[in-house]
Amino acid sequence: MRVLAVEDDPRIAADLGHALGAVGFRVECCGDGAEAWFLGDTEEYDLIVLDLGLPKLDGLSVLKRWRANGREMPVLVLTARGTWLERVEGIDAGADDYLPKPFRMEELVARARALVRRAAGRGSAVQVAGDLRLDANRMLVSVRGLPVAISALEYRLLAYLMLNRDRVVAPGELLEHLYGDDFSREANALEALVARLRRKLGPGIIGTRRGFGYFLQAGAGG
């Protein structure tokens, strides 16, 4: 899943990138409101973590502009300004959740996971599709009750397909959410990744609709 972390404190930004990256998110960072507004308005993210105290353009204005333009990605607001009035203002502007500073990274990660699941209409951290089971909290995958060892990139691919298991996901969308803008987005790389994951999961789990993309097959191996 692709996450934009908007934070002008380099130390906190680095901590966000490390904590979210460690649990399977593909994290991009920026440090000012003007860049954040542009990225959030032109790129597709599964989640944005947004600090309100930003240079150039404050976070609340950024959020209002996104929502006014119809951008509906989940937004987790961070701020050192923790009064109840500011929390209400942020939520009224379109924030999906609110976390005052200082905070524990474990709590931020839990809230981030929950927001992404809810946005996809998935309430539980444990996702099941036929014989396939994915535990997002522990980053564990099993098929027919047997654990499957997969790489971090393979996990991100499978987790995205699982969250979007009611539809066919286009290769371009997968590349964008797996790699972001720092990748050449070659279809061959995605095909090789899917092939490796299929070998590990076994037949009947990841399907291909030629010309459209990839999906979890009905029953997912069952």
TrEMBL record:
Record-listed 4-aspartylphosphate modification sites: D51
Signal as UniProt keyword: no
Domain Response regulatory: 2-116
DNA-binding region extent: 124-218
Domain OmpR/PhoB-type: 124-218
InterPro entries, per database record: CheY-like_superfamily, OmpR/PhoB-type_DNA-bd, Sig_transdc_resp-reg_receiver, WalR-like, WH-like_DNA-bd_sf
Taxonomic superkingdom: Bacteria
One Pfam family of this chain: Response_reg
Keywords carried by this UniProt record: DNA-binding, Phosphoprotein
Secretion signal span: none
Keyword Metal-binding assigned: no
Annotated protein name in UniProt: Response regulator transcription factor
Biological source species: Rhodobacter lacus
Taxonomic lineage: Bacteria, Pseudomonadati, Pseudomonadota, Alphaproteobacteria, Rhodobacterales
